[in-house]
Amino acid sequence: MSRASDARPPFEPRPVTLRGRHVTLEPLARSHAAELLEAGRDPAVWRWLPVAAPASVDEMAAWIDVALKQASAGESLPFTIRDAAGRAAGSTRYLDIRRPDRGLEIGWTWLGKPWQRTAVNTECKLLLLRHAFVELGAVRVQLKTDARNLPSQRAIERVGAVREGVLRRNMRLWDGHIRDSVYYAILDDEWPAVEQRLLRFLERAPARPGPARPGPARPGEVSC
To answer: Does residue 196 fall inside a structural domain?
Structure first.
């Protein structure tokens, strides 16, 4: 719970490895470029992201370099997502880290097609949210997504995040489109209920990657 007088340690997200039953989130590294390129081969994975799908190891390495530069500046904390077999499945990060306000955003999330609509999606968000609220002492975690990405919006809402509004024409994408972004947030006193919902979803989610199936996004399946 947020308090007027806060005696907690400073809010300082640092590189960390987060482990669950189905997924491990480890600090993003340039050495991950080749396996992340393979995971993100399908251009559809990058449809809602600000950059086009990297077409080579060098392009993926350049994408990683930008993320690591932002991390060095204290602006973000990027992760490689690995499944239970240790295969790179995608990437996500903490960003918009607001230390005085004890807040951050979860975003830049993408998963290769085989891992979408599996437990990887849901446990990834569970680990990130739990670390933010329980270990770091966040009072607010926000998420955003393209206003055209209705499955992503439904997935975020099913988790229990509250829709707060739309920033119009606030982000230019790789194809030149200037998107409207829908913003959501979870507060520290909302986290226990969100955690229970994610745990229930995790019990029902397929554990292993398989052929991509059509249908709405599962909770946690968010490209933003």
So the answer is: yes
Which sign does the torsion angle of CA 172, 102, 153, 47 carry?
positive
- Which residues touch 180 (CB under 8 Å, ≥6 apart)? 146, 147, 166, 167, 168, 169, 170
User: Facing residues of 140 across strands?
Assistant: 103, 187
Give 137-196 pLDDT, tens digit per residue. 999 999 999 999 999 999 999 999 999 999 999 999 999 999 999 999 999 999 999 999
DSSP symbol at 134: I
pLDDT of residue 213: 40
Q: Which two tokens stand for residue 129?
A: 């949210």
Range of the domain at 69: 18-204
Confirm whether 6 is domain-assigned.
Answer: no
Which candidate, 34, 222, 31, places its Cα nearest to that of 144? 222
Q: Is residue 13, in this structure, part of any structural domain at all?
A: no
d(C-alpha 24, C-alpha 81), whole Å: 6
What's the total number of domains in the chain?
1
The kind and range of the H/E element at 98 are: strand 88-98
For residue 209, is it within any domain? no
Computed over every residue of the chain, the mean pLDDT equals 91
End-to-end CA distance of the chain: 27
- Which residues on adjacent β-strands are paired with residue 142? 105, 185
**Phi and psi torsions of 80, nearest 5°:** -95, 135
Determine what percent of the chain is predicted with pLDDT higher than 90.
86
- CATH number of 67's domain: 3.40.630.30
